[in-house]
Amino acid sequence: MKKLFALFLSVTSVFVLSACLGGTGGEDVDVNIPEEFPEEEVEILIWHAFGDDNMALLDNIFDDFEDMYPNVSIRHVGQGGYDGLRESTIQGNVGGSTPTMVFGYPDHFVEYLQGNSLVPLDDYIDHPEHGTDLEDFVDGFLDENQQYVDGNQYSLPFAKSTEMVVYNKTVMDYFDIEIGTERFLTWQDIQDIADDIVWDEEAVQALTDFDTVEEFEDEFEAGQPHIINIDSAANFFINSLSQWGLDYTNAEGEILFGNQDTYDMLSYYKDLMDDDILSLPIEWDEQYGSLPFKDGDVLMSQGSTAGTRHNIPDQEDGVFGTFEMGVAPVVQYDEDNMAAIQQGPNLAMMADTTDEERLAAWYLMEFMTNTENTAYFSQNTGYVPVRESAFDDPDYAEFLEIGQADPDDLSDDELNQRPFSMAANVAESQADIYAFEPPFVGRVTSSNARLESELLVEGIYAGTRDIGGSINRALGELQQDAVDFD
Fold first, then answer.
1. Any idea of the CA torsion for 294, 299, 302, 308, to the nearest 10 degrees?
2. What is the mean pLDDT of the chain?
3. In terms of Cα–Cα distance, which of 44, 47, 23 is closest to 120?
4. CA-CA distance, 225 to 221, in Å (whole number)?
5. 51: exposed, middle or buried (Cβ count in 10 Å: 0-12, 13-18, 19+)
6. Alpha helices, DSSP H only, in 432-481?
7. C-beta atoms surrounding 290 within 10 Å
8. 287-318 pLDDT, tens per residue?
9. b or e along 413-446 (b: 16 or more beta carbons within 10 Å of the residue's beta carbon)?
10. Measured between alpha carbons, how far apart are the two ends of the chain, in Å?
11. Can you tell me the distance from the alpha carbon of 155 to that of 439, in angstroms, rounded to the nearest whole number?
12. How confident is the model at residue 6, as a pLDDT?
């Protein structure tokens, strides 16, 4: 597994290295590192975008750290999703009220650097007393945090995720549809699955609590469940461009998707939307597809491995009850340009802090990303460890085996871990096709481009604009000229 991760990260590093992050850097941030760990009371305030379940795991890590350093207290405040976290941090930078540490993505950090709001970590890394050896970090994850124009490092990788497909294995098994954690479905496969699922009276009575097809179809506006949901419209758009061999943006901040090829690609997916094969969470007035998936409104859902726990079937009153869940890799267009987005939050230290707060925060960053804690967090969330040593850990190897085992051979504790293990196995299976978009700042930012990508796809799905209108609206918001389409 480690070799596979090294392979994909060496490949994606070539792509990411060209995406040097902009910003004025941290030249004006003075770094004065105390020789000794502070003895006085220190509070570390962390802003994040995690849900309650993931924060419960982090609280265990924080408790262990506070036991080691009783004079340190850790307080964390959620800022909604990652867009909300980014906006709160930018506003905090302007207003002079920021946390000690913040989770985030490179396209967030590059914006914070415009105001010299991050502390460069290089002196901490190299310090003879407090420093750390970075060689154990997975190379590509580390590279992502070292691509700043001034040559400094401003963040450490904390947890990495990719996308996966969860599916109703109970339904698929009934119709003799085999998927599994290593099979890469194409969109043609998804259409074939839609054709293979025939909701006759026998199937309805075998899989649901309904007695007749008419009662079953009364539950759905389309007469039957949708086939697949896509959680992130932005990820779908960016990843689909890669799968079609098309361009999205580049490191210089150029917007490259305003063309006929993008129009043709979106036309292909619009047909799947119109056939109730491809859907978005807005179909059910939801932000994510996990609840419609568990309720039985959709048979498959593509989203982050970090959201594994939210997809575990527990809706006894859903259409299919508490069915068995399977996990598969991201759906591909074909085998020529396979791609799966790699994401996951990193940790950075804010500049509006004291020397003592910074040193305590640095110790916490090291602790949160050590071998034991990165393996622990990954095993219980669907994230990928950030240290190579975690993949060599016997406990983590056993954890991966759970997802490949027959459920009948597993204990109750292992059954509880099985969804996360299946997600980790999927992450391994698509390790050599990971990619992510380059971050940039300028007249528009990579965050702007991502938001407009999401609105573009959602507008097409909702029917508020046609395909050409949706593309041109996004281009206009990104200060690009409109395009004429055939």
1. 30
2. 90
3. 23
4. 9
5. middle
6. 446-462, 467-477
7. 22
8. 999 999 999 999 999 999 988 999 999 989 99
9. ebeebbbbbbbbbbbbbbbbbbbbbbbbbeebbb
10. 46
11. 15
12. 39
Assess whether pLDDT exceeds 80 at residue 26: no
Architecture of the domain delimited by 162-341+436-477: 3-Layer(aba) Sandwich (3.40)
CATH topology of domain 20-160+344-392: D-Maltodextrin-Binding Protein; domain 2 (3.40.190)
Ranges of CATH 3.40.190.10 domains, the chain: 20-160+344-392, 162-341+436-477
Conformational region of residue 307, where left means phi above 0, alpha means psi within -120 to 50, and beta covers everything else: alpha
DSSP-derived secondary structure for 260-322: HHHHHHHHHHHHHHHTTSEE-GGGGT-SSSHHHHHHTSEEEEEEEGGGHHHHS---TTSTT-S
- 124-137 in b/e form (b: 16+ CB < 10 A) is bbeeeebebeeebb
> According to the per-residue pLDDT averaged within each range, which of 11-15, 45-49, 182-186, 413-417 is highest?
45-49
Pairing mode of beta strands 72-78, 42-48: parallel
- The one-character DSSP state at 232 is -
pTM: 0.82
pLDDT of amino acid 415: 93
pLDDT over 60 (residue 8):
no
Structural element, H or E, at residue 77: strand 72-78
Token digits of residue 107: 């396209």
Give, in order, the Cα–Cα distances in Å from 166 to each of 30, 300, 302: 48, 6, 6
Q: Do residues 348 and 109 make contact, with C-beta atoms less than 8 angstroms apart?
A: yes
Question: Which whole number is the average pLDDT over 86-108?
Answer: 92
